[in-house]
Write a structure and sequence with these properties.
The chain is an alpha+beta fold. The chain has 3 helices and 3 strands. It has a single domain, classed as GIY-YIG endonuclease, CATH 3.40.1440. It has a 3-stranded antiparallel β-sheet, sandwiched between helices. Helix 2 packs across helix 3. The termini are far apart.
Length: 89
């Protein structure tokens, strides 16, 4: 299984979108010094949303869609944060 996931930093309220085939391992990495360039020193992070895909290509395509298409990213981010009552607007 492959995952597109959203993490929220508890230190600065930033949201990060990523892709992995091992969700538990990747979250641990983000919360350690082995996270990605963007998340390094910006944690700790909480998983707020994920989508599962059987195909690695489908998961990568979804991650790229969210990162490259501002409207899709913004709509999903708003929906997620509103469902968690984290949206401050």
């Amino acid at each position: 299984m492959h995952y597109v996931y959203w993490l929220k930093s508890t230190s600065n309220d930033k949201v990060y979108v990523g892709f992995t085939n091992d969700l538990k391992r990747r979250i641990k990495e983000h919360n350690s010094k082995n996270g990605g360039k963007y998340t390094k020193n910006k944690g700790p992070f909480t998983l707020i949303y994920y989508e599962g895909y059987r195909s690695e290509n489908d998961a990568k395509r979804r991650e790229n869609n969210l990162k490259l298409h501002k409207k899709a990213y913004t709509q999903l981010k708003t929906r997620i944060l509103e469902s968690l009552n984290l949206n401050k607007s």
